[in-house]
Amino acid sequence: MAVFLVSSIPFVLLCTRLLRNDLGINPVETLQHTTGDWTLRFLIFTLAITPLRKTLNLPELIRFRRMLGLFAFFYVVLHFLTYLGPDQSFNFSGMWDDVAKRKFVTVGFAAFLLLIPLAATSTTGMIRRLGGKRWQSLHRLIYVCAILGVIHYYWLVKSDVRKPLMYAFFVGIFLLWRVWDAYFRRKGKAPATVRPEVSTHTNLPAEKNV
Ligand code: HEM
């Protein structure tokens, strides 16, 4: 509940600013930038869960991963809607032209499309239906989404690339950690151990969760 409330704060603040007419000289841009930023942040928070869970030996952190991932999806839907509505006036053919023409939009759109099956299969029922292994493979796409999100941001900024590079740094760290962890697991010795508890969300053994 606390994680839900904290994750909702950016949305509540944005709504408050919107209602107060306090979104600056370019409200659409403010909405787009704020929702884009929060999408990328929540993707990174989601990626951080497994490394933190394993290195700090806190298996209970797994409970928050689904919610953080769903918040990333929630913010990208808002981000997309601010693009489709105020930016493109719900003109789908104009949107397709833009997706085809501007490469940063193409990449952002691809990341958005990839997040849809992840959100749709986030329920415990879907995990059971797909089976742990297939579900895990599908949900590794979150790394691809985060990388595409960073490229999208990097390509859209005109001069100051410090922020996209900072996001790239975090995505890179978590990706490298994953590769390192998988390498040691294949060699039969885990670099960090986790108590083999059952995840409260998935009923899969905690170390089987991605
Ligand atoms: C996972 C998917 C996505 C992520 C992580 C993401 C992230 C971001 C970020 C971080 C920004 C810049 C925020 C800032 O300047 O502080 C941004 C801007 C923007 N994004 Fe996305 N985005 C995604 C998907 C999309 C999609 C699907 C579209 C439209 C089809 C889109 C269109 C835009 C536009 C038009 C801007 C503003 C560009 C400008 O200022 O010129 N994004 N996005």
Tell me about this structure:
The chain is an all-alpha fold. The chain has one domain (2-200). Helices cover 75% and strands 0% of the residues. It contains nine helices and no strands. It has helices at 2-19, 27-55, 62-87, 92-101, 103-120, 124-130, 132-139, 141-156, 162-186. It starts with a helix and ends in a 24-residue tail after the last helix. The relative contact order is 0.12. It binds protoporphyrin IX containing FE (HEM). Protoporphyrin IX containing FE (HEM) binds at residues 29, 32-33, 36-37, 39-40, 76, 79-80, 83, 105, 108-109, 111-112, 115, 145, 149, 152-153, 156. Protoporphyrin IX containing FE (HEM) is lined by residues 29, 32-33, 36-37, 39-40, 76, 79-80, 83, 105, 108-109, 111-112, 115, 145, 149, 152-153, 156.
Tell me roughly what share of residues is in helical segments. over 70%
Provide the structure class.
mainly alpha
Percent of residues in beta strands?
A: under 5%
Low-confidence stretches: 194-210
Cα gyration radius (Å)? 18 Å
The count of β-strands is: 0
Q: What's the helix-strand series?
A: HHHHHHHHH
Number of helices: 9
Q: Largest sheet, if any?
A: none
Shape: globular
Mean pLDDT: 90
**Small molecules held by this entry:** protoporphyrin IX containing FE
